[in-house]
Amino acid sequence: MLRFAFNRLLQAIPVLLIVISATFFLVHSAPGGPFSADKAVPPEVIRALEAQYNLDQPLWQQYISYLGDVLQGDLGPSFKYSGRTVNELIAAGLPATAELAMYAMLVALIIGISAGVLAAMRPNTMQDYLPMSAAMLGICMPSFLLGPILVLVFGIHLEWLPVSGWGDIPGDKILPAITLGTGYAAYIARLSRGGMLEVLSQDYIRTARAKGLSEPLIIFKHALRGGLIPVVAFLGPAFAGLLGGSFVVETIFQIPGLGRFYVQAAFNRDYTMILGMTVFFATLIILFNLLSDMLALWLNPKLRQQAGGDS
Amino acid sequence: MALLDVNGLKIYFHTRDGVVKAVDDVSFSVDSGETLAIVGESGSGKSVTCYSLLDLLPKPPAKIEAGTAMFDGEDLLTCSPERMKQFRGNDIAVIFQDPMTSLNPFITIGEQLIEPLIYHPDKARRLTRDAATKRAIELLDEVGIVNANARFNCYAHEFSGGMRQRVMIAMALINEPRLLICDEPTTALDVTIQAQILELIKQLQQSRDMAVIFISHDLGVVAGIADNVIVMCEGTVREAADTESVFYRTKDSYTKRLLAAIPEGAKTMANRAEVGQPLIEVSHLKTYFKDYSSPAARAEKRQVKAVDDVSLSIQRGEILGLVGESGSGKSTIGRSIMQLVPITSGSVSFNGTPISGLSSSQLVPWRQRMQMIFQDPYASLNPRMTVYQTLAEPLLYHGLANSSNINQQVQQLMDDVGLARASMRKYPHEFSGGQRQRIAIGRAIATKPELIIADEPVSALDVTIQAQVLDLILDLVERHNLTMMFISHDLSVVRYISDRVLVMHHGVLIEQGDTEQLWANPEQEYTKNLLKAIPLADPRSERARLSS
User: In whole angstroms, what is the distance from residue B152 CA to residue A232 CA?
Assistant: First the structure.
């Protein structure tokens, strides 16, 4: 298992290098720069700023020195938030985003798996159609619509929950978690329904029935583990996506997370911020994909033993 | 009254295309210590009949329309779900056909074994985990699992096919059922393993005085073990009597046809092998694969010697049979000759020209001259291509036909393999198993090859269909002047079709000879055992064979 992980991490190095290079040259080839603002700034000021951030050097030299910094884990200074580094900015936004991601994932897993399993137990009946239609709705419903609806209903009409904020009033984390988790819950419901249907049609489920086991035992002990493998494969990229922050949800509920940095960095031509966020996000995707692959391996005894041979 | 009395059972499947009468007015009974065999081809309703007894059919589409199944005075078909749970595993147990798919791959076999004990529907009879484990290990020992204590925590994939079926049997017996249903329990197993498993079931039945229902398509197996036989066809019972009456005195036309279809005796066609330069010459062939089976094997970079130093030759016009049990390397030899797997060392020559080591583009002209027929036509035909496309592709690719005469050539092929021209635009799923194998055979002979390697071409087919396809193959060999390598685990089939036979065991060629000579005087111990293990479709001689 360890060898497997190590191999996969080695493969990640060229991937990251390509991501960094492509992003670097793309942002630099976009018209404008971090210091071209609406207001006219004296050229000597711009020149001084560019010298300060090494932007007056040839592009390839900038590229080499950026790579060198990234290797040491330094994502450079932000061009727009003067005096702060990209590392600091990500560190400032990450806790809120990570917490929100965790809650959203929890919501998604609980709702998604229960809906999927329920639906798979009685396919093509109301017990299947209802949760699956809801899941379809959940996938179609964008968070910029769902968020405000939830706020209107539970925040303003019923006055059960706060409408925005993060950690200020008890319960203010519930609505954002549901808003962000719903879409993922819907995907997970569909994946777990498919996985469970597949497993429930297997011969070994018939064996379990023939042994006289009760239906809950068959579902939870014999079927669930195999049925959730598709969900596990989806968890990695999904969690990485959540950790990248959601601009929409964080804006609606005024959460000091990472999401807004993405959008602002792009508008600002904040080269190091764009690059830093991209590197951060790419690393997350690689790491979490690896984690979910390892989890899937661990769930399957046959694959687990084969992979075990590598370590 | 018998232990189980089934009367007037009717099970219909209500599908979108109408009602299918899967089981139509079936009656039988079986008593303690007795073995009833239910014989039939695929789709005869034999499994559906038995699954309905334990409520294991998917409902819908299945619906029990009429009938009773009295087990010890209680009707299994109308009892409550709670009562059914008590019957299952406790009074009635099932051994399924394929132990690989019937055991849960995610749970250790030990855990699966003790489940009926620790979750017993009758709470008073539940055992503790420790007591259940002890009982399970004893039983594993009894069914012949060596070192049962250590094997208890293994997963199904860590056992061989025969050992897996032993685990299945132990699982079925763990609550001492009074009725054991065996659904083709040896069909997925090699013939020597089959003999062991049948013997084991027999012993366990006698020591426990169980009633056994034995579902099978193999009349040889049935002849040896059954007290009574019912023959089913398309949902109805065609014949029901004691075993000897069914085999020796049947009046039913279908049963007669079934008995006649069993390949028996020697090849009736003359040996057409030519002398002189062999068409295929294989010398010191070694095909090794990397061993991924266990962590240790991987770490040490061990190799599986699938084919280990095999030399053979095939004369032009000859039908060469290649027999062996699963894992003996017989398929790998076929694929190595076809250059479908990279060989480790040795050489393969076609008509005197070495073809091993050629690049795939250099092989193209040779591919036209040698073709392959695979075991499962459903898996080896492209489901998105019509028969026409499947047959036309090799003709056009090898430039054997052009747009003006392709239709006519494909029609000719359809005629050759006995398919209706009208079904040319149909897809594989619209055909039956036998017809699909005819398509595969048509595709193989399309390029007018000199050599055909047939890898278990009739193993997936019912016995009556198998007989037709074998005759088709023999007919085509003669008409198209083919040379053939016929790979099979079924010794009777090989005897029926081949001029000469090679016996493979663990990647090594252990014996070869002219078919009849080999059958009469096998030299190697392994070959003797292999030949001895073939069940005979004749109750008297089969029982004599078993008791010897």
Answer: 29
